[in-house]
Amino acid sequence: MKTVVVIATILLGSAPSFAQNTFPPASFKNLQVLPKDSPARVVIGTMKGFANGLGVRCQFCHVGKEGLPLEEFDFVSDEIAQKKTARIMMRLTDDINKTLDAAAPRAAGAEARVSCLTCHRGKSTPTNTKEP
Q: Are 55 and 122 in contact (CB under 8 A)?
């Protein structure tokens, strides 16, 4: 009986965890600006928009190393300051777009007027500021 318990423990301990370390995940944790129930296509599309608008890669805001599979990144962590800044900027651009839309509504289906690209123009530091 002890042998069965030991073998079961070894097998269960070495089995891959399908609930963790997958990309995209079945659900997202720590969403603070996007709706908590956002589907993967929306979250990933938003992140790709950030990457394109700022000319950066995932590790600019998320804990992980260039070249590693995305399954190994810690997307939940708030350790990197740029992630907190991104949330502030998301709220800011949303507020600006709401104000603009209230003053002069967009045509149906038109994209937001202000986005990351508006100021960043593909650079991690906005082009309208002096770089240190």
A: yes
